[in-house]
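testing teh design pipeline on a random one, pls ignore if ur not involved
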């Protein structure tokens, strides 16, 4: 059975968000006309419940949300601890929360494949990194979003 590595689980476990605030990850889906579509997500929008089950909180009305709702699939890509990680997810939409603080579409996912990539001739020293504009507000939103993903 496919599963997240322990290193990747530590990134996505919903803990110590402030230490992960600069990490941006890619979530790739396929549009209706068959083209790849890439969105950026953060550690405050994806939660690993364990090494095989994840949850996503995506903004409603986006292309990514529509693609996942239609196909039930996504490819999660990140760079962490010197490795590139590629994780195929099978996803189903969760019911909307009536008391949700933010308009998010929530998805439950299962890891279908997980691959780590390194190169013998080079070290991966960074992936996509971000600087939050209103750090306290964003970290608070992430914490609240991850709490809602556990429901």
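output:
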């Amino acid at each position: 059975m496919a599963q997240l590595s322990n290193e990747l689980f530590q990134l996505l476990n919903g803990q110590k968000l402030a230490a992960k605030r600069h990490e941006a990850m890619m979530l790739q889906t396929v549009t209706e006309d068959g083209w790849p579509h890439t969105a950026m997500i953060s550690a405050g929008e994806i939660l690993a419940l364990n090494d095989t089950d994840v949850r996503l909180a995506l903004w409603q009305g986006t292309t990514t949300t529509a693609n996942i709702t239609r196909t039930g699939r996504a490819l999660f890509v990140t760079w962490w601890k010197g490795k590139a990680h590629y994780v195929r997810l099978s996803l189903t939409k969760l019911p909307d929360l009536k008391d949700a603080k933010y308009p998010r579409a929530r998805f439950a996912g299962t890891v279908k494949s997980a691959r780590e990539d390194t190169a013998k001739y080079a070290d991966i020293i960074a992936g996509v990194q971000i600087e939050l504009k209103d750090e306290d507000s964003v970290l608070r939103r992430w914490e609240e979003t991850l709490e809602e993903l556990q429901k």
